[in-house]
Description:
Elements: H1 20-28, H2 32-42, H3 49-59, E1 62-63, H4 69-72, E2 78-79
Helix pairs in contact: 2-3
Amino acid sequence: MPGFDWRAPAAYGYARSIPAAGFAWEYLRRDDAYRRDFQRMTRTPRHDTEARTAFTNRWGLRFRGGPGHARRSRIALLDARAST
């Protein structure tokens, strides 16, 4: 969580200049259910595509880069854009 008072309007001055995906991420990362699901995903084997698909469908997120051997060696980053 942020190291500042998230309830203070001054803490969000930067929000006027971020894209829609970044703005959506500001809300999502504070959602307790999302945080629980994300922690569960960190403990799920990478090859469990069913669990990854359920996670991404529930939250409208996708993993950058897609599947593949080269991808397995890197940390999967979440993209805050909605899946299509």
